[in-house]
Sequence to fold (88 residues):
Amino acid sequence: MASTFSVAPISGIGFADRKTTPDFGLGTPTLGNKNDTWVYVLATEAVATGTCSVDSSFNLTDAAGNYTAPYTFNSGEYGWVYKTTSPL
Fold:
């Protein structure tokens, strides 16, 4: 099971939050309370929960990949996904 909160000293992180304007720079990493790495991304299409892909520009797609979206995204939303494999 994934982390429920960030242990990094960055305020305003909510892993379930989805926004249409960014709160952080794309690619911002943080460490979760279960020692998992999360990254801030932009969904370029609707993304269901489960494995997903993040490209080098931190665009999120619903294709199976090395990240997991524990919450759904609508196209154009910013939010957090966690790295399924290490390292980031």
